[in-house]
Design goal:
The chain has 129 residues and is α+β, with helices and mostly antiparallel strands. The chain has helices spanning 23-32, 38-54, 58-61, 83-86, 89-98; strands at residues 6-11, 75-79, 103-108, 113-117, 121-125.
Length: 129
C-alpha cells in the first residue's frame, strides 16, 4: 500500500512555545479572547461540534498524546483521503483571514514520528529543526 499524503493547516509564525499552532487552536484562541463576531462564534461552535461528532479527538484516546514533555511539538495532520474533514477547514481559514492571521496549508508524505493514528489523521512528533 502506498504511503499516505498528509495535510496540515497551521500558523505562519511560531507560538511563544516554539511550535506552530494548528487552525483549530488559532480560531479557538480568538474565541477565548472574545475576538470573534457572533456569526464567527456560531460557525466555530457548530463546526467544532461537527468535528467532535465525526472523528476522534486523539487526546481522548491517549491523554498523553499532546504532553509537551513526552511528545514535544506533537501536531495533528489530516490524511489526504479525509476530504470530508478537510473541506470544512475553509470556514476556519476565512475567520483567520478576517483577523489577519496567516495560516499555511502544508503537505507531506513523512511529517514526523507517528505517535497516534486513526482512519482520518495522525499525530506526529515533527523531525528536529
Amino acid at each position: 500500500m502506498p504511503p499516505h499524503h498528509y495535510i496540515r493547516f497551521q500558523a505562519a509564525t511560531r507560538h511563544r512555545n516554539g511550535h506552530f499552532p494548528g487552525v483549530f487552536a488559532l480560531v479557538n484562541t480568538l474565541a477565548k479572547e472574545g475576538r470573534l463576531t457572533p456569526a464567527q462564534e456560531r460557525f466555530r461552535r457548530t463546526h467544532n461540534d461537527w468535528y467532535d461528532a465525526n472523528y476522534p479527538d486523539p487526546s481522548t484516546v491517549d491523554p498523553d498524546v499532546y504532553d509537551r514533555t513526552l511528545h514535544p511539538g506533537a501536531a495533528a495532520w489530516f490524511k489526504s483521503t479525509s476530504t470530508h474533514l478537510i473541506t470544512r477547514v475553509d470556514g476556519y481559514l476565512a475567520i483567520l483571514r478576517t483577523h489577519r492571521i496567516p495560516c499555511h496549508r502544508l503537505h507531506s508524505r513523512a511529517p514526523g514520528q507517528v505517535i497516534y493514528e486513526d482512519q482520518d489523521q495522525v499525530v506526529v512528533i515533527p523531525p528536529p529543526r
